[in-house]
Amino acid sequence: MATDYNMLYQQLGRLLESPPDLSTYQACAQPAALQWLGRGHALVQAVSVGIDHISFSSAVDRMRTGAWHSGVQQVFQLLYRALSHCELHLPAGSAGSFVPVGNSFDAFAALSKIFSAATTDIMIVDPYMDQAALVDFGLTVPEGVPLRLLADRNDHKATLHPAAEKWVTQYSTHRPLSVRLAPPKSLHDRAIFINRNEAWTITQSLKDFTKRAPAEIVRVDSIATLKLEAYEAIWATAEVLI
User: Of the residues 27, 56, 88, which one is the last residue of a structural domain?
Assistant: First the structure.
């Protein structure tokens, strides 16, 4: 059976997004840590890079000894190596970008690459949107391409409105902007739609992107049309902010 690198890539990304507290592992192996390490070993073995799965087991064994720090380092090294191996095997059209914690430039570069493909329209869906959508990433949208921001009426941050007003004042029609607020709890994704036919999901709000935990950007092909139709319907009736 052929290896499903796309599935493994996404599962490794999810695993690396939510590591447990391993600082107490040496004294007491908590169930959450055991489960996380078990999943990590299974994924590394499934990716099958040399004897990495054996090295993973050895690293976990060292975590119960005085070599705890080196064991933890190797666990993460092996997980990231498996992730990179998967990424090399992804089809060009469906490859995602896993952005490690704190790598703000990688986040900027990954989103810039997605936005640069836009020629007619970009819509960003983010319930908790704040000024970061414009301040940090807005100028990566090609000039002249309309940018639409859809946030939750109750959960968006107060900084979004003044940032949007200043954006419109400064850029006017050179960088068209529309902002709307959806009914509370009606937005269930953080998503990016390019040219009304390409969909990407992001695992964190843009305001937190790479600041708190690793983030992942994944292209969604199989249900892109359904997602777009659903959010276009919400957009059509959402409250106009700008």
Answer: 88
- Residues 86-107: pLDDT tens digits? 888 876 655 556 666 567 787 8
Lookup: tokens for 68: 């705890």
Domain containing residue 38: 5-88
**pLDDT surpassing 90 at residue 84:** no
Q: Which residues of 88-114 are buried (b: 16+ CB within 10 A; e: fewer)?
A: eeeeeeebbbbbeeeeeeebbebbeeb
**Same domain, residue pair 12 and 43:** yes
Whole-angstrom Cα distance, residue 191 to residue 189? Answer: 6
CA distance 5 to 12: 10
Tell me what pLDDT residue 98 has: 64
DSSP 8-state assignment for residue 142: P
Last residue of a domain, one of 24, 55, 88: 88
C-alpha atoms less than 13 angstroms from C-alpha of 197 in its C-beta half-sphere = 5
Contact residues for 184 (Cβ-Cβ < 8 A; gap 6+): 152, 153, 154, 155
Structure tokens at 138: 């807005």
